[in-house]
Amino acid sequence: MIKGFKEFILRGNVIDLAVAVVIGAAFSAIVDAIVKGLINPLIALFFSAQDLNHLVWEVPNLQGTTTTFAYGSIIGAVINFLAVAVVIYFAFVMPMNHFNQRRAAKAGVTEEPEALPSEQELLIQIRDLLEKQKSA
């Protein structure tokens, strides 16, 4: 039992996952700082960006009180997600893709290898070759 656990822990996947979680947390702090320090002030330049948590919809319920739906916080979360996604894409993903393409071009790597024939096409080719051998 302990041997199996030791093999599981020492397998590269678990250690890689642990490293990815730690780096992801540090990366999240960088992205949050960019969004809060750069993107949100840029949005505030063009729009009156207020806290959206005050946007609520109160509905009377069966007990005689009201139930509050905080749709403003949902809208704020969606906007924040889109801002984070834009920062990640334009600041990290797009430059990294461009870098990888340039590196692959320098190494002479082609984009896609030629597709292999399907099983049906191979069987047709074998049949045709066998017919040629019989007639020869």
TrEMBL record:
Subcellular location: Cell membrane
Xref: Gene3D superfamilies: Large-conductance mechanosensitive channel, MscL, domain 1
Molecular function terms from GO: mechanosensitive monoatomic ion channel activity
Subunit structure: Homopentamer.
Family, per entry: Belongs to the MscL family.
Primary location class: membrane
GO cellular component assignments: plasma membrane
Stated name of the protein: Large-conductance mechanosensitive channel
Function text: Channel that opens in response to stretch forces in the membrane lipid bilayer. May participate in the regulation of osmotic pressure changes within the cell.
SUPFAM superfamilies, alphabetized: Gated mechanosensitive channel (SSF81330)
Keywords: Cell membrane, Ion channel, Ion transport, Membrane, Transmembrane, Transmembrane helix, Transport
Protein topology in the membrane: Multi-pass membrane protein
NCBIfam families: mscL
